[in-house]
Amino acid sequence: MAELLSWQIGDVRVTRVQEQEALLAPENLMHVLDPARLAAHREWLVPRFMDEAGQIRLSIHALVVESAGRTIVVDTCMGNDRPLPMGLGTLQTGFLEQLERVVKREQVDVVMCTHLHFDHVGWNTMKVGDRFVPTFPNAKYLFARAEFEHWSTSRAEPKTGDVNVDLAYGIAPIVEAGLHELVPARHMLTDEVFLEPTPGHTPGHVSVRIESRGQSAIITGDMVHHPVQLAEPTWGSHPDAEPERAIETRRAFVARYGDRPVLVIGTHFAAPTAGRIVRTGGSCRFENA
Ligand SMILES: [Zn+2]
Predict the structure, then answer these.
(1) What angle do CA 58, 63, 69 make, to 5 degrees?
(2) Spans in the chain with pLDDT lower than 50
(3) Cα–ligand 1 centroid distance for 237 (angstroms)
(4) What is the 149 CA–ligand 1 centroid distance (Å)?
(5) Do residues 184 and 145 make contact, with C-beta atoms less than 8 angstroms apart?
(6) If you measure from the C-alpha of residue 120 to the centroid of ligand 1, how many angstroms do you get, rounded to a whole number?
(7) Which residues have a beta carbon within 5 Å of ligand 1, which is an ion?
(8) CB within 8 A of 279, min separation 6: which ones?
(9) Could you tell me if 37 and 232 are in contact, meaning their C-beta atoms sit under 8 angstroms apart?
(10) Which candidate, 184, 206, 189, 188, places its Cα nearest to that of 197?
């Protein structure tokens, strides 16, 4: 398990707690529409975001945001003890111990899931005896209303061969405990931290903006999985539910945050995880902050 990484944005502190890192072929994550362009990007991708053999790195991590006396956990990874989809088996990691080096679970005020995929709602719950109970018993778990409604209607009935781990383990126990709260896609979590709609990966997907003392950051969520997609916004991720809308969202994101003093914190970006979008001759790259 990787060391904690953290960043200061004005008065706000963001700390990365990693659950796992994966290496995979680029085509297994996204539509690589032009392999020659991918080869050209290797110059800035290797070694941080791609290894020498051309496999890309993806990190699964949670981001702890401390703002105005509140502690917010943005996305909660995959979780232990449950059967995961995509052949991932069942995890037993030390994620929670690592997280508790930053904040005790009883002291978390808010859990914010950017969307409701299984790798973002896992540690919403933990197994105690034979039950899954809320990991953060004193937190409000915020879900964007459009996202929650999409998942409760489209995914309520399990499909054959598709384990609805997200709903069964990550969401249902929270709803049963009455800890969830549905919020609009534009919503203030504190005076410094607020949601911004970034739909396409899922219909109600949100990113998390931070503004404090003239400094800015944005936590992407899965509107982008890998830094190369900032340079190539048309290279959609296979799990994008609405591919055209996802491309529009990535284009708008790069237009809004490219060449700006905004720290982009990637929800699946490998270390250093945070950086800036820098335009270079018709394209752009992601550079260490
Ligand atoms: Zn994800």
Answers:
(1) 175
(2) 160-163
(3) 10
(4) 19
(5) yes
(6) 6
(7) 119, 222
(8) 258, 259
(9) yes
(10) 206
Question: How remote is the CA of residue 268 from the centroid of ligand 1, in Å?
Answer: 7
Query: What dotted CATH number matches 5-288?
Result: 3.60.15.10
User: How far is the centre of ligand 1, averaged over its atoms, from the C-alpha of 117 (Å)?
Assistant: 7
Q: Provide the residue ranges of all domains of the chain, joining segments of one domain with +.
A: 5-288
The whole-angstrom separation of Cα 256 and Cα 4 is: 29
Question: What six digits make up the tokens of 232?
Answer: 């190539």
H or E element: which one contains 213? Answer: none
Q: What is the pLDDT of residues 108-122, one digit of tens each?
A: 999 999 999 999 999
Helix (H, G, I), strand (E, B) or coil at 229: helix
Residue 249 CA, ligand 1 centroid: distance in Å: 16
The per-residue pLDDT for 86 is 84
**Contact by Cβ (8 Å): 177, 134:** yes
- The alpha carbon of 22 and the centre of ligand 1 are apart by a number of angstroms equal to 12
Percentage of the chain beyond pLDDT 70 is 96
Q: How far apart are CA 182 and CA 11, in angstroms?
A: 27
Using the mean position of ligand 1's atoms as its centre, give its distance from the Cα of residue 12 in Å: 24
Listed in sequence order, the residues at least 6 apart from 26 whose beta carbon sits closer than 8 Å to its beta carbon are: 32, 38, 50, 54, 55, 56, 226, 228
pTM of the predicted model, to two decimals? Answer: 0.96
Q: What is the pLDDT of residues 42-89, one digit of tens each?
A: 999 999 999 999 999 999 999 999 999 999 999 999 999 999 988 889
Q: How far is the CA of 118 from the centre of ligand 1 (A)?
A: 8
